[in-house]
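--- STAGE predict ---
source: upstream dedup step, 1 unique chain passed
mode: sequence only
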Amino acid sequence: MSQRKAKEYRRAMDQYKGVVEDVDDLKRRIGAMEARHRREDQLAAYKRRKARREYEEIWANLQAEREEREERRRRNERRRRELARRRITVACAAVLLLAIVWAIATACTAQENEPEKEATAVDPVVFVTPTIGEDPMEAEKIEEALLAQGYLSDDVPLSYDLQDIMRTACEEYGCPYPLALAVAEVESHFDMDAVGSAGEVGIMQLNPGPENTYWINLEAETNQDPTTPAGNIVCGVYLLGAHLVNYGDTEKAVMAYNMGNAGAERAWENGVTSTEHSEKVMEAMARWEAVVG
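--- STAGE serialize ---
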């Protein structure tokens, strides 16, 4: 073989070796790429499964919280109705007792005025007390009795159910009923759909606070949703009762309700003991005391 051919042969072999090495390197790179893609796919699948599990856990927790909240609402409603039944039972017993006393007094007076008449047999008077729950008009009769007692009032611009809820909350949290009515009047004019400039909602104008923290705290304390009409009333009354306990003064409690604890305390430090808002509430409270006692 001539030197020229030998040189060409060596050059061809070198090129072949280079091509083989390039092919092997390409295969290694492709293999590494495929392995990386498999790992990425596996990791993505794992993340999807994990996210799915977390979503299912969160959803289950939310469902459990909703069920618990609904159960608390049902318990509170049963308690409220039972309280109303007890009140009407007491009222009926009082009316029955008065009727018996009146009947006895009338009979005695008649005997004194007609001493010459011969005694005649009188059929005994039997009073039948209906069992609560059997009368189809029970709800209407309860409402009529509570209206007669002054527990409910047509002068209050709230439904009878919401009046009952507010009164019950006032008894539970130590807040005077006229004060709760006055705050509802001044804050929202009894408008359930009222929304304030800072996001306050409902008849009692409850501030949500940063990331709804105020609402969350109120719900934790009362087991009531402050964004519902009934829950808004209960949470507002709870807040008023807490301020009354903390400050021991009605007008200070009203200022703290309206300005927050820190804002009210700064005002007191500066010698401010009342505001236009607190004066309006105190005036409204005096009016409501005359209406509902």
